[in-house]
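Researcher: Please generate the 3D structure of the following complex. Treat every line as part of one assembly.
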Amino acid sequence: MKPSIPKGTRDFTPAEMAKRNYIFDTIKSVFRLYGFQQIETPAMENLSTLMGKYGEEGDKLLFKILNSGNFMDGVDAVQTQSIASLTKKISEKGLRYDLTVPFARFVVQHQNEISFPFKRFQIQPVWRADRPQKGRYREFFQCDADVVGSDSLLNEVELVQIIDEVYRRFGIDVIIKINNRKILSGISEIIGAEDKIVDITVAIDKLDKIGIENVTKELQEKGISAVQIAKLQPILELKGTNSEKLSQLKSVLTSSEIGMKGIEELETIFNFTQDLAIKNEMELDLTLARGLNYYTGAIFEVKAKNAEMGSISGGGRYDNLTGVFGLKGISGVGISFGADRIYDVLNQLNLYPADSLNHTQILFACFGDDEIRYALPWLKALREKGIIAEIYPEAGKMKKQLSYADNKHIPFVAVIGSNEMEANKVMLKNMNSGEQQLIDLQGLLNKFN
Amino acid sequence: MKPSIPKGTRDFTPAEMAKRNYIFDTIKSVFRLYGFQQIETPAMENLSTLMGKYGEEGDKLLFKILNSGNFMDGVDAVQTQSIASLTKKISEKGLRYDLTVPFARFVVQHQNEISFPFKRFQIQPVWRADRPQKGRYREFFQCDADVVGSDSLLNEVELVQIIDEVYRRFGIDVIIKINNRKILSGISEIIGAEDKIVDITVAIDKLDKIGIENVTKELQEKGISAVQIAKLQPILELKGTNSEKLSQLKSVLTSSEIGMKGIEELETIFNFTQDLAIKNEMELDLTLARGLNYYTGAIFEVKAKNAEMGSISGGGRYDNLTGVFGLKGISGVGISFGADRIYDVLNQLNLYPADSLNHTQILFACFGDDEIRYALPWLKALREKGIIAEIYPEAGKMKKQLSYADNKHIPFVAVIGSNEMEANKVMLKNMNSGEQQLIDLQGLLNKFN
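Model: Done. Output below.
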């Protein structure tokens, strides 16, 4: 039997974990610096919490957990039942599909323990029974920060600062694209197709991928007239700086109250961030709609400038996140970092700092048991200084020990034989240069300072 | 609809997460210091990997995942099928039940990428469909470190050092109990009940809980004769220091090769650790068998000295971990930290360091939008120094802002009104003493140094 794991899932080896930890630790420190606090929710939620929250397609992609024990008890005449109703009887729990719905459930369930505005972050795996393909997994991590219970645009500003700081720390130059759903509403209002706003935003969202001609075709298919599409055209082709775009938009949207509100919100965010020396470029991008029918204000998306990769972060403001669980009137704004894509970008650009990889700094290689015993206090002294130190646990076979050091990318090996013991030293071998030197404990400790 | 989570699962609030992170971070740093590297495996494993590895009872406690899509396809005549065979048809995956079996599967699957001895740690949730009760959850975290591919007792020594260092960092005084399965084998050999070794160790393991009389009764029930039990008695009542116990044991076990091997192994471990100034007490405890039929050499268990709590860590040496997946002859030794119990002990003893709780250090409270704008560069300067700083995102309502600070245990609030702006200062309020002072940016930065 050759062991394997379910398709679409992954093992993470030490080398991969070190990189993933670097990513998550970096993001976490920035979240924390802004007062966001971590929560975790269970992998399993009641199906009543999950079902109906992700559309019909989403319901199908939920991993469902079989009830324990004799799950067929009370199920009669299986042949006459639909799969949906049978499933309901034999499964009551499902695996988390995203972090947003469990977060909404958490906020409602713990509303009396929470102080609003509530700034939480959450980094956990989610599971989707999607067809696995390159870059799409059935188990993957989401990494979200949200503020709920505050309408203030200051929250948007702080999320932009967080994005900017995270990518500054990674050394990835990004474009922070920003839009506002209210502007999209304004546009559909102006062209007289308010009822079609979802179709319009979904089509606009595809502009980058399928081009303006196909978007036009899609809009036509959705019943938007040629006249309306013509009105849309100049808006989609808006050019210039952000403030140029905003002033052009203002003249187009002047009669739309909601459109003007969207412009005002964007202006506020741009003004604040200008004061704050945001390092990365911010770009007003009207084509940014992020498919979701979900955002009500700001919409964010982040792209890496020097790597071939789709969006590596995204988010926005939403209303009424918790309404479906019975708590009305809670608005929120959030951002999600795409860990798998960031992982690939850091690889592409070779940006992992060497010291993020938690390598062992020194291996002790011994010729016999006396040597091992001699080495232990040295190891203790090194570790007390926080230096990651290992001893190869078996004596002898120097080649094996050196190859262990090689495989683990350990830069120094302290070789101990009887000569070294007599001299109260070790023979320190630099694994990169091959250079060797006899050194005493103090000398060794100094080497790592 | 009142939202809830499946029974036996938990949400972790920010306060709980901070404590849990403190626990895991502390343990991780010590693991890393000894060259252990982290891996992660998927939450879902193929049922073929999991089934039959935890006994019949364990198989029942696996959470099974329903196949996606029309899972009843090809299932005919449900009524005539046993639940077991029906389950097999509609479910192919299960949730991780522990970290050991997935680790064994990982080692076999990745054997060509791994350099042995392989020192890995793993901290992930596991799921068991056990009846939930106080302190027993259906989702809980395991926190394991193992070395596989080395027989050297040095590994045992390093695990003792790791245990000692972890609890030293927590400030929890512990007894590190140690035994050796080979000694237990030797004892059953000496009393002529070698075939009963499992019964004997299971019974011995209960000595603490049910007392010597009930253990005697249980042994009788298992068919161990009064004569044999009489031979066992003095061994169970062994007294004195570790070396006194060992020398008494030596005279009893002198004719048992395996028993003497066990004694020699323990002596080696005690000798090594004596050199290493282990801070916590180590105790040879022959009653330590840890139920498991699984250990072949050293057996460890850790108890907190000043708290009411069962074992908070445990582990030991096992042979042939990976044999069931086709890789023979790999021995290993490991230790598992009980995070939930450590959490409770740290609470009982009030040992969480204040600075482990990631509190925001200062909140900016503003009377208006101009004040908010005035505050942003201050926040930026503080955060650049690594100081966790927040601004209440809405202007006005000072009481609300102060109560937010109170709820989040934020020690300082910087109040900004027009007077403060004119003076280029903030009014810094110490939330514990109530003391207030006008302070400029440099003064504020210095305050947190």
